[in-house]
Amino acid sequence: MNYFKKILRFAKPYSRYGYLNIFFNILYALFSALSFAALIPMLRVLFEQEEPVTQKPVFEGMRRAKDYVMDYLAFQVNEYAGDDKMKGLVMVIGLVLVLFLLKNLFNYLAMYFITFLRNGVLKDIRNEMYRKITDLPISYYSEKRKGDVIARITSDVLEIQHSFLSVLELIVRDPLTIIFTILVMFSISGKLTLFVFIFIPIAGSIISWIGKSLKKQSDYVQKEQGHFLSIVEETLGGLRVIKAFNSESRFFKTFSASTKRFFDFSNKLLNRQNLASPTGEFLGILVIGVLLWFGGKMVLVEGTLDAPSFIAYMGLAYNILTPAKSISKASYGVKKGNAAAERVLEILETENPIIDKKDALEKEGFESGIELKNISFKYEDEYVLHNFDLKVPKGDTVALVGQSGSGKSTIANLVTRFYDVDEGEIKIDGIDIKNMTKKSLRNLMGLVTQDSILFNDTVAKNIALGKENATSEEIIEAAKIANAHEFIINLPDGYETNIGDGGNKLSGGQKQRLSIARAVLKNPPIMILDEATSALDTESERLVQDALDKMMRNRTSLVIAHRLSTIQKANKIVVLQKGEIVEQGTHDELLKKNGIYRKLVEMQTL
């Protein structure tokens, strides 16, 4: 129930629809009971048991309310029809039809308004999840499968709509329908109604017993769905490699094993859930059978109940079955929805360790330089960087080189505050970056990575990612600096050409130049280049390097380099090994030292 309360907070903006739903559900429940009670005068006319009432009855208090209503209806029938029985029957049938019409009209209006609440909550939960997904640090997704996150924002949220939010439709309507119906049943025969109360606890205990394992089974189903969505996501991302290594059958085995588990879990869950309806119906018919026997005895043997009242009473008793079954199904839904809500709330309630301080500074400009002071950092158990110091003066280009795993990319992740340092501090203009807002910090920086991350949109919108209101002239100018304008204008629709998923319609060099154009347009004072040319052929590298040189002009740059030929003009080259600086200096100074850097250069020259 705690999960249900947490999900209900999303319903607050739509509370007016909830109140309207409650109002019309009350009317529905009332008219649902009255529509069956109205059958009694009709049946009395048919069985000729209705005594003519010639005087208008007087209301004598709630104790005799039922007799007053019946006498008043009989008086109106007599006034309207007189001795014409068919005319009286038509009037009573008309009354029954009007009551059933109003009942169904109020039911529709209740459902109409709850639809806005349900879909509004669904929209807001998804929006909140997406905001949280983009807000959580990159480290969170190193432990999560992307497919599992997709499953939570799609199928789990839908499950919440079908389970928890369906309860909102029933929370007023069905209990009130049962209450109003039982009140009318009591007014007809209190003795007979006691049998209904014997049925309710028996049915409740059986339903509770059936539903105990639903949450557990539902949790298995949703986790497995996240697993096979992850397999699909990985397959689409690595399709070229899968085909090249003829691994289709291996991946199919993995996927089919997951869908087989999903099949088994789903069967167990749905078979347990499907047990609700026949069990509820059988228990209902069982009590109807008991009522028929006991009520028949009251009519035929004891004469304490007239036949029309008994028939209407049986209709009212059956009227309880539908809402009772709905309530039992809703209790299953809540148990099943608990698992989905738990998975959704796990993301929504995850604390983000990288947050802005309350008095965080909005850093507008860049004045003196970047300083990494005695920093240490580890992803898991072992330190990747230990007591690391580095200064990057404003206007300088500092290159980081070293073997894979030496900590080069980690420095880029820490400076951009994708991760927080475990020890030490990173300062910009003497201010710890933890004391700045993340937005203002990242506004100072442009990032070009080895993998050109582009989006399924037009060329222009990909370039303008960091500057939403950029003009066409600004976009074109940025593309020219990045040596991208020439190939862009030769695309089918120029700057309005859609580049496909991940920019798949472009070559590696073209994608990289678009990434550079994006960074150029943002025009940040600090540029971070993470092996921006390592995945390119010689011709593309020349064009990209030329674009990088133009981009870095008059900027402070931190360059993580794999190809050492691209960093010879750097003001300082820092050689890393196992998270520590082993050499630093200019290209010429390091060559003269005849150390690790020289060996790396010679290895790449061969």
What's a quick, concise take on this entry?
The chain has helices at residues 2-8, 15-37, 39-46, 65-81, 85-135, 138-141, 146-162, 164-188, 190-211, 214-237, 239-244, 248-274, 276-302, 307-348, 408-415, 438-443, 459-463, 472-481, 485-489, 508-522, 538-552, 587-593, 596-605; strands at residues 369-378, 383-393, 397-402, 423-428, 431-432, 445-449, 526-530, 556-560, 572-577, 580-585. It is an alpha/beta fold. The longest helix is centred in the N-terminal third of the chain and has 51 residues, at 85-135.
Shape: elongated
- Compute the CA-based radius of gyration: 37 Å
Task: Specify the structural class.
Answer: alpha/beta
What's the CATH architecture of the largest domain? Up-down Bundle
Number of strands: 10
Residues in helices, as a percent range? 55-70%
| Largest sheet composition | 6 strands, mixed
CATH first level of the largest domain: which class? Answer: Mainly Alpha
Number of helices: 23
Keywords: ATP-binding, Nucleotide-binding
Protein name: ABC transporter ATP-binding protein
Q: Any overview of this molecule?
A:
The chain is α/β, with parallel strands linked by helices. The protein folds into 2 domains: 2-15 and 110-348, ABC transporter type 1, transmembrane domain (ABC transporter transmembrane region fold), CATH 1.20.1560; 369-605, P-loop containing nucleotide triphosphate hydrolases (Rossmann fold), CATH 3.40.50.300. Helices cover 63% and strands 10% of the residues. The chain has helices spanning 2-8, 15-37, 39-46, 65-81, 85-135, 138-141, 146-162, 164-188, 190-211, 214-237, 239-244, 248-274, 276-302, 307-348, 408-415, 438-443, 459-463, 472-481, 485-489, 508-522, 538-552, 587-593, 596-605; strands spanning 369-378, 383-393, 397-402, 423-428, 431-432, 445-449, 526-530, 556-560, 572-577, 580-585. The strands form 2 sheets. The chain has a 6-stranded mixed sheet, with helices on both faces. Strands 2-1-4-5 form a 4-stranded antiparallel sheet, covered by helices on one side. Strand 7, helix 21 (538-552) and strand 8 form a beta-alpha-beta unit. The two termini are 68 Å apart. The model has no long low-confidence stretch (mean pLDDT 78).
